[in-house]
Amino acid sequence: MPQTHYRTCHLCEAMCGVEITTEANTIVSIKGDKKDPLSAGHICPKAYGLKDVHEDPDRLKQPIKRTAKGWVKISWEEAYAEVVQNIKSIQHTHGKNAVGIYKGNPNVHNLGGQLYGANFSRSIKTKNNFSATSVDQLPHHLASWGMFGHSLLTPIPDINRTDYMLIMGANPLVSNGSLMTAPGFGQRLRALQTRGGKAVVIDPRKTETATKASEHHFIRPGTDAVFLLALLHVIYDENLTNLGKLADIVTHQAIIPELVKAFTPEKTAPITGISAETIRQLACEFAQAKTAVAYGRMGLSTQAFGGVCQWLINVLNIVTGNFDQPGGAMFTTPAIDVVGLLGAIGATGSLGRWKSRVRALPEFGGELPVCTLAEEILTEGEGQIKAMVTIAGNPVLSTPNGTQLNQAFAQLDFMVAIDIYLNETTRHAHIILPPATGLESEHYDLIFHSFAVHNTAKFSSRLFDPVPEAKHDWEILQDLANLLNGEPSTPQEKEKQQKNLFGRLSPEAILDLALRTGRYGSKYHKGSNGLNLQKLRAQPHGVDLGPLQPSLPKRLYTKNKQIILAPELFIQDLKRVEKVFWNEAKTPDQQFDLYLIGRRQLRGNNSWMHNSERLTKGSNRCTMHMHPQDAQKRRLQQGQMATVSSRVGNIDIQVEITDQMMPGVVSIPHGWGHHYSDIRLQTAQQRPGVSINDLTDELLIDELSGNAAFSGVPVKVE
Ligand SMILES: Nc1nc2c(c(=O)[nH]1)N[C@H]1C(S)=C(S)[C@@H](COP(=O)(O)OP(=O)(O)OC[C@H]3O[C@@H](n4cnc5c(=O)[nH]c(N)nc54)[C@H](O)[C@@H]3O)O[C@H]1N2
Ligand SMILES: Nc1nc2c(c(=O)[nH]1)N[C@H]1C(S)=C(S)[C@@H](COP(=O)(O)OP(=O)(O)OC[C@H]3O[C@@H](n4cnc5c(=O)[nH]c(N)nc54)[C@H](O)[C@@H]3O)O[C@H]1N2
Ligand code: SF4
Ligand SMILES: [Mo]
To answer: Where is the 4Fe-4S Mo/W bis-MGD-type domain (predicted)?
Structure first.
């Protein structure tokens, strides 16, 4: 008898509802769940990846250890003992900071990882914490921290109700939205256009989103800060500001016109490649639209002025009256308000409490920028990293100058990876601890419910039982934390341990507590409406909690519940913008005469789903896109191999000539490069591709936040 199971896909931020049919314990179909209140039936090709990962013969199910004779299976007890012994002895000899931690993207899509990750990190007590945040959205956090007082209080574009959407450095038609959980983005875009609205894309590539949008303009990579300053210049120049109901709670209003004064459309056009006329048109349209929202994502965060860009996006929304208003940028009111829970314990973010040892990059929210990880391992001296713990991350492929990190990992005294695959990063581990994953896990998205364009709550029970000896991420993290902490030796320690929820409760129990005491919880809403885990389990499609609602000033975490329109750190950083762009018009230098940018692909998920035949089959996708003019100049033909080099390295890659690229800019997807013979990724190795991060440069960063600047890496092509 076929059975039907409903759950939320945890692979990306879109949180699509899926309907999975099984027969005799085998998946026979995966479809979109039409009754899902958020995704209404939408899924992407990766949804079938749920089956592929579940059934993948290469997926690890038991701890393995690297020995002279290759990888051997060991018991959990043996693995734990060896991990704990090594971490303790290295910390004893070299100090706490000698152990580094890197947490990758799937942690954020994992209930247990989210709940237990911090507790685990505390048991290591290192300042060398790294994560994928600093190759991704760190500038968003910085802007929120500076302006709203909480690094996670993230404004979300209310795409369902807006009349005008300015999309910069994002390709939601492929990515399905990021810091904007918006499954079925294409449909939402069509609905926006059908109701007479307009979507404008600013991107150095005419992306899938740009093709469907109302208008697209090429921009020279890395110059968005200047473009945004010019938009604001016009808006002030033409008296188009209108703060509306926020006027009384926004500080520093007078300083913005001063800051943007010099950035005239005429002066900035040669820098950005967007004409003065277009800038004027876009600024007026945006400010005069009934409702409008500016949204900037990866392409804006991962550039040298990522922080400034995300700040200016917020400023643009605020000064045009498009903030905390339907159709503008709004905050969610989720069933479990992670932002509020962290706020209640004062965990609102931090900057620069300590610096990295080698390059003196600032701490942010307890982490250091990952672009400095390799040098922290390679540079000798006190505080050098001697051991690593990686958790659901593949930084050899996902962080700048992966070649260097690959070398650095190879010389560690000890490394343990909590991961489901033996891949480019985990091959350096001495021990790999593989968790149960995906369809074997219960799931509630703590993070992306908070970033969604509509409020819902959805719980997924597990579909399959993992192998009997399996452990979930949270169990591994908690077991290791307990072993590292040891038995409490003083009454105070004992009391502290007893108070620690994570020592006593399962993820489901914590989830239930958080739901019951949350905004819609059964503690406050008696009768049938109040949420708790039992109620949510009984609603397999999830529950609809309504559209985004205005919530200011209550939600702010700043001192007087005010929005700080121009935080000092951004005012200061504008000097760097002026220095770079006013002094030397930003043109590539003579040796590296092209700009390199990235390209996400619909049938890929960062680096780790290429072992699915279904997602990788067909013609080679790891290609370099290049404008016909640039190809002609270099006498390159369609499909030919070319060598691309940057300051840090070079790769050979097939050329795809397309006028969808801005002249002078080339694009390569990330997450490829599965060519090591000792990795257990049999399908991926048939189409290994090459890694763009063997070209990206660990020295190219947003100096303010420490975030990697992937956008616009200078390269040459031969
Ligand atoms: N050049 C360039 N580089 C980029 C980007 C770019 O656009 N351009 N994008 C950046 C962005 S946005 C991100 S988020 C990062 C991602 O960077 P990472 O997080 O470092 O890399 P992923 O490819 O997501 O690797 C995920 C790892 O988690 C493992 N995994 C999967 N599921 C589970 C699970 O349930 N439990 C555990 N323990 N492990 C699991 C996989 O096997 C894999 O090893 O890459 C960044 N790198
Ligand atoms: N299919 C698929 N979906 C995914 C992922 C995946 O790997 N595959 N990854 C997930 C993750 S971890 C994330 S963080 C999100 C990211 O979600 P998005 O941010 O929507 O994804 P990207 O495709 O990286 O979009 C970045 C865009 O910025 C453009 N760009 C590059 N440089 C510049 C610049 O200097 N200025 C401007 N204006 N644009 C620039 C690029 O051409 C690209 O179109 O996607 C998520 N969804
Ligand atoms: S868009 Fe994301 S959440 Fe939706 S099916 Fe695809 S991978 Fe899963
Ligand atoms: Mo990401």
So the answer is: 1-58
